[in-house]
Write a structure and sequence with these properties.
This protein has 287 residues and is α/β, with parallel strands linked by helices. The protein has two domains: 97 residues, Arc Repressor Mutant, subunit A (Orthogonal Bundle), CATH 1.10.10; 179 residues, 3-Layer(aba) Sandwich (Rossmann fold), CATH 3.40.50.150. The chain is built from eleven helices and eleven strands. Strand 4, helix 8 and strand 5 form a beta-alpha-beta unit. It is globular, with a radius of gyration of 23 Å. The structure holds S-adenosylmethionine.
């Protein structure tokens, strides 16, 4: 039994070391992101010299890169297999490193796949805080019967690229949302704001969707504190990151979402889990 106790203590130490040293993973990831390793591997698996030959970085230290790649492969960020004939290690992408590709918008793919019926009866949609409009552009591309509006601050939409079937509108979501759509899309917005500010945004969304009896499609984190699922753990971690990124922002549990939505005038809602650390919350105005 004493042995068991010792084993448990050592495991405890390993857990603390793991938490303390998590920054090593971040540093290794930063290194391969800055070198564009995932984009390099997007076409097919490659050896380290092949990867290095495609990275336009002066004085690349191959030995150190090989150690970074070995470490990240041990964490399943990259796939590493030894070629039987040449004995060389071939590196490839995994489901994790696909997230490092610069042109991959994976969350929207999950939204479009798992919320398919949700877009069926919509003729107009406004992405509030939509940035340059990439998300609403994907929605209207997948559902060409929908007319899309991308609403963001005037200086943001001023630089936005043109997308087919998307109109950019500049304004302030705390003032008014000047379009009356069938649906408002709010992706990664409310977690930036306190309950008080989020209530203001929700009340403006409610005013905007009331005319056409529309709905709200929120894409944001839903905290599930006891879950060990990696995606749920990431949402919990994000809650602490929010203290730095946006001091009044936070991630919310389903109970907190329910209270906030009610305050904003949306008492009916459903949470739709998707394979992402974000979930879809479909909300309807209170009667
Ligand atoms: C975290 S980004 C989210 C962007 C996008 N929805 C996404 O998921 O990538 C927050 C967005 O809210 C916009 N925003 C901030 N304050 C705003 C305001 N008062 N009115 C409209 N948009 C605002 C920002 O310009 C930014 O594009």
């Amino acid at each position: 039994m004493a042995g068991d106790g010792e084993e448990a203590t050592l495991q405890g130490q390993a857990k603390i070391l793991q938490i303390m040293d998590n920054f090593v993973e971040s540093m290794a990831l930063k290194c391969v992101v800055e070198l564009g390793v995932a984009d390099t591997l997007n076409s097919h698996p490659m050896t380290l010299p092949q990867i290095a030959a495609r990275i336009p970085f002066p004085n690349l230290d191959m030995y150190r890169l090989s150690r970074v790649m070995r470490f990240l492969s041990s964490r399943n960020v990259f796939n590493a297999t030894v070629d039987k004939e040449s004995g060389e290690t071939m590196y490839g992408l995994t489901d994790s490193s696909k997230w490092l590709l610069t042109d991959n918008k994976i969350v929207m793919k999950a939204v479009l796949k798992y919320y398919q019926g949700g877009f069926d009866n919509i003729e107009t949609i406004v992405d509030v805080g939509g940035g340059w409009g990439a998300a609403v552009a994907e929605i209207v591309e997948a559902h060409p019967h929908i007319k899309g509006f991308n609403f963001d601050l005037p200086n943001v939409v001023a630089g936005a690229p043109k997308y087919p079937n998307v109109i950019h509108v500049g304004g302030d979501m705390f003032d008014t949302i000047p379009i009356n759509p069938d649906a408002i899309f709010l992706k990664w917005i409310l977690h930036n704001w306190s309950d008080e500010k989020s209530e203001e945004i929700l009340k403006n969304c409610r005013k905007a969707v009331e005319e056409r009896k529309g709905k709200l499609i929120i894409v944001d984190g839903v905290l599930r504190p006891k879950s060990e699922n990696l995606l749920d753990v990431e949402a919990q971690r994000y809650d602490l990151k929010m203290m730095v990124i946006s001091p009044s922002g936070k991630e919310r549990s389903e109970d907190e979402w329910e209270k906030l939505l009610k305050r904003g005038g949306f008492s009916r809602y459903t949470v739709i889990k998707i394979p992402s650390f974000l979930s879809i919350i479909e909300a309807f105005p209170s009667e």
